[in-house]
Fold Cadherin-like beta sandwich domain protein.
Amino acid sequence: MDEGAKTIALTVSYGTDVTALVPTITHTGASVSPNTGVAHNFTHPVIYTVKAADNSEQQYIVTVTRAFANNADLSNLSLSSGTLSPAFANTTTSYTTSVGHGVGSITLTPTVADHNATVTVNGTTVPSGHASGAINLNVEANTLTVVVTAQDGTTTKTYTVIVTRAGQVVEVLRQEAPVEELRLQQRNQVRAQVRIQWLL
């Protein structure tokens, strides 16, 4: 309360319904208007008038401010490829998934629980409920980081997704000689053996 400025400033927790607050006002005057103990809408400042016993009046301006939200949770997180393990839960912050070698990039779609919060994917701001830009994947493990910042600007929560990209599979084909070629080689070997026997 600022007696000199005749103002009263109050802060209530986030989520408080300021449209029907019931103030209790203690005063030394003869009366106060609006009446104390009666619900009022404090979306905007409310002026209270205190009347003294000598009928003199003094006005006070009461302002109620809601605190910023400290909710830094995600309500959902999805991938363009692969499946989160374990399944998403806002209290679980570490996930893994595997993709084939043919998946060279991936996008993440984070959705914040409180619409006033902001979110980044690998340091880049992403609108809630929208896919991030494509993130290139190396073979083996890739760590992706999702950071949610609450409306209060100080509360944060970090989610990590480790994406493992499979290595390239190389197929080795063995060429076999045609059957006719093998038969010819066998006949040549027999002829060579016959010639050797005659020479002996």
